[in-house]
Amino acid sequence: MKQAIVARADLGMGRGKLAAQVAHASLSAYEDADRKTRTKWKGVGQKKVVLKANGEQTLFDLASKAEREGLPHAIIRDAGHTQLDPGTVTALAVGPAEDDLVDRVTGDLSLY
Fold it and tell me: Which tens digits make up the pLDDT trace of 29-71?
């Protein structure tokens, strides 16, 4: 099992900002999963991979694929307190779910 977090590389987020957005996405998608999935994922080490994509539309397209696959997922919009304008779409998390299911959505992306 794993979770893939896709962060926008085109925004030029600083390392701290990127880490915060990835954390928000991870937790939000975790909360979208059912109890059985959450428990199983926690029991096998909570594997995560951080991937990069460019552009808001890419994240929405991936979220649509995750929805069609029935996978937990979450789109993150920044509050706008620091580096970005309020509402800027920064990240997407897909999973936790079985590796092959997550890869159906995010398997073509590069590591961040």
Answer: 999 999 999 999 999 999 999 999 999 999 999 999 999 999 9
**CATH classification of the domain holding 52:** 3.40.1490.10
Residue 85 has pLDDT above 90, yes or no: no
Phi, psi values for residue 92, rounded to 5°: -140, 135
CA distance 35 to 5: 20
Report the SS3 class of residue 94: strand
Domain count, the chain: 1
List the alpha helices (DSSP H) in 33-110: 35-43, 56-69, 99-106
Selection from 39, 53, 78 nearest residue 63 by Cα: 53
